[in-house]
Amino acid sequence: MAWGSEGRMDEARRDARLVRAVVRRGSRDAADALVRRHYDEVYRYCARRLHDADGARDLTQDVFIAALRALPRFDARRASFRTWLFHIATNRLTDYWRMRRPPTVPVESVELEDLAAARPVLDETGLLARLDRTLATGDARVAEVVRLRIFGEMGFREIATETGQSEAAVKSQYHRFMQRFRAELERDAVGREEGGTS
User: Fold this and answer.
1) What is the pLDDT of residues 24-60, one digit of tens each?
2) Are 107 and 185 in contact (CB under 8 A)?
3) Local structure of residue 160 (DSSP, 8 states)
4) Distance of alpha carbon 17 from alpha carbon 151, whole angstroms
5) What is the pLDDT of residue 2?
6) What is the CATH number for 43?
7) Which of 62, 84, 129, 197 has its CA 20 to 30 A from that of 68?
């Protein structure tokens, strides 16, 4: 994977070394180091979604437990450890909202121009889980751009630095994917309507 700066590359390499130490040797020190390096950022992400400090702490702990258990499946060729961690955090948040609140907004009514601005609603509708499933079946480079934008709440300039692409390229990838995703949702909505009237 190309990285936009030496600093980002160093961070990714350090994470990869720690992951290998955990997977190959079961190193508790390496696992603790991974948690310390990313804990504050994941906690802030959860706290912004939940508006509940205690709930955010519990959820952050769940994220790291899940991540450490899943480390053997982590593939640094597909995404950075940080992006992968936000992917897990988003899944946990989706599960949290699903267990506590029924969907109140039809998925097809959600504006998709910028999903990052509509996260609280999307968490509750289950649309983020659908988005993540779609990303998993597509181009890994585009998936990383979208995940950094939606799950990591990063700006396009920061994503460009993270992925080693131009800002124009990441914007284009993001918006083309959103157009395809919207079309997919519209097709599903039409299918549901036709199924309900037959």
Assistant:
1) 999 999 999 999 999 999 998 888 878 788 989 999 9
2) yes
3) H
4) 24
5) 40
6) 1.10.1740.10
7) 129
Closest CA to 179 of 133, 142, 137: 142
Tokens of 177: 């994917």
What is the Cα–Cα distance from 141 to 151, expressed in whole angstroms?
Answer: 15
Of the candidates 89, 71, 90, 2, the residue with the CA atom closest to the CA atom of residue 33: 71
Q: Is residue 185 domain-resident?
A: yes
Q: Which residue has the tokens 């909505």?
A: 189
Tell me the pTM.
Answer: 0.55
109-129 pLDDT per residue, tens: 444 444 444 444 454 456 777
176 found inside a domain: yes
The two tokens of residue 111 are 């504006």
Q: How many CB atoms lie within 10 A of CB 185?
A: 18
Task: Return the structure tokens found at 12.
Answer: 């990714």
Distance CA 151, CA 168 (A): 20
Count of domains observed in the chain: 1
Calculate ∠ Cα 50-54-56, nearest 5°: 40
Q: What burial class does residue 142 get, using C-beta atoms within 10 Å of its C-beta: 0-12 exposed, 13-18 middle, 19+ buried?
A: middle
Answer yes or no: are the C-beta atoms of 47 and 53 closer than 8 Å: yes
Neighbours of 174 (CB within 10 A): 21
> Does a structural domain hold residue 1?
no
Helices (H), 52-166: 53-70, 81-100, 119-125, 127-136, 140-150, 156-163
